[in-house]
Design goal:
Elements: E1 5-11, E2 14-28, E3 31-35, E4 42-55, E5 62-75, E6 78-82, E7 86-88, H1 94-114, H2 117-137
Parallel strand pairs: 1-6
Antiparallel strand pairs: 1-2, 2-3, 2-4, 4-5, 5-6, 5-7
Length: 140
């Protein structure tokens, strides 16, 4: 039988994704990482970015998942991603993400005006998450 990966994405709200894959590509804090079957065991921190999963059922079937950081563990052909939040491209509410982007941009402007570095950091993360969700939604 051909080798494949089992991919699970889990958040505090439960299982977001569970499929077989030929390859998984995710952005770690050290850069982009591609995982193929028989990959050595590894645990890495993820950034706010998209995770690409090339499914085994078709050469052209790719799933995209917006992941807001977290960790990825690879062991025995199982890729487990644990994140604060994650959404598949088809599940993203684009208008909600656009509103979150606008809200974060306003908060950034206000934080810069007040020179509030903590609020600026929080708003910048919120903006990055919203932009990531919008970007991933465009793959559907």
């Amino acid at each position: 039988m051909d080798q494949y990966l089992t991919v699970n994405v889990v958040t505090p709200d439960g299982l977001v994704y569970d499929h077989h894959a030929a390859i998984v590509v995710a952005r770690t804090t050290a850069g982009e990482l591609g995982i193929l079957p028989k990959h050595a065991p590894i645990i890495v921190p993820l950034t706010i970015d998209e995770v690409r999963v090339k499914r085994t059922d078709s050469d052209t079937h790719v799933d995209w998942i917006a992941v807001n950081g977290g960790i990825m563990e690879v062991r025995d052909n199982v890729v487990s991603i644990v994140a604060d939040s994650a959404e598949r491209e088809r599940d993203i509410d684009v208008s909600r993400a656009e509103r979150a982007k606008q809200r974060a941009e306003r908060q950034i402007a206000e934080a810069k005006e007040k020179e509030d570095t903590n609020e600026l950091k929080r708003a910048t993360v919120a903006l990055h998450r919203a932009i990531n969700r919008i970007k991933v939604s465009k793959h559907s």
